Fold this sequence. Notes:
By secondary structure, the chain is of the alpha/beta class. Strands 12-11-7-10-9-8-17 form a seven-stranded mixed beta sheet. A six-stranded parallel beta sheet has the order 3-2-1-4-5-6, with helices on both faces. The chain is globular. Helix content is about 35%, strand content about 25%.
Amino acid sequence: MRIIIFGTGNYVTGRGTSQFGTILPAIFESHNTTKIRELILIATTRKSRDLAEKKIKKISKISNIKINYKIILNKKIKSFVKKYKKDSEDATCAIIATPDHTHYKIAKLCLQNKYHTLVVKPVVNKLSELKDLIKTADLNNVYGAVEFHKRFDRQAQIMKDKYVEGFLGTPLYSWTEYSQRKIVPEKFFKSWVSKNNVFQYLGIHYVDLIRFITKAKPISVMAIGQKKYLKSKNLETDDAIQVIVKWQTKKKQIFTQTLLLNWIDPKFTTAMSDQKLNFVGTLGRIELDQKKRGVMAINENNYIEEINPDFCRMYQEAGFTKWKGYGIESIKTFIKDTLDLENKKIKKNKLLEIRPSFEESIYSTAVLEAANKSLKKNSSWKKIFIK
């Protein structure tokens, strides 16, 4: 199997930190069970290429896993994608982890050239583009998926099981509070933050989770945003956004989802992500604290951290480093699924039923598009129509 990664940023390699990101560790972990013939990373600058190479060499050393790799400095994406279609001797899949506004163009090229394709969320922010990608994938008999890793979190799976068994009764409302440190827009996304917003970056995960848990359909959306701190730093995007989504279940029950989001938390918060998900129904409630997972580290050097052991964590085994967590499982699952497709162990239609496919992301994309319209139209309610 050949894996091509578009992007060498924080989520891929941990660029800007001492860590290794999520995608790169997941690929090295996958190599233990799914032999990867070649790993190719596409970088856009010499600096990002050199930093990515340092990360790969170090992760290879500490994990004791060797993968044949190359890092290509290539801005001519179209010619590159065609070349590797022609040269491919076995399954080729692509993972796209580039700025959001570039996803559509790169994903379409990959699908046209018969790459199974995984895109970090959101795949796109317009339904018209998503539908075109779905059509392109169908025409070329390949699989498209979105990296909604929170579906693999055991907490979310517990909430789904409780919901399905009727524990909540009739659903009434859900609310999410999700925030991250201001280093994200100020440093990691600075060059393209004006083309993004905190709902698109963070909130969309929890829209997808409600769809995953309930199988309900969104019917209308309203969004409110505030521009204060980041605007003072000449970054043209909202500090915080609040979104209300009305959902309708298959039984025609209406419930609401409220999302309270910001990405200007202080740098000294005890975790990069502060996140909570709550769901209330006529018979009960379920509360997920996805920041306080029971592990706290403190020392004399003014260090305090609430550690998430479940997302993407390094562990030592037999003298070498391994990575575990739902972020890792999300990437590994896509790699295994594409290999199973090529080996005819599973059919694409089955994956569309059980995975965060392009088809399944119609619901989160519809909410995202409507929320962005609401922000531009004085926070007016926007109806959603999904056939």
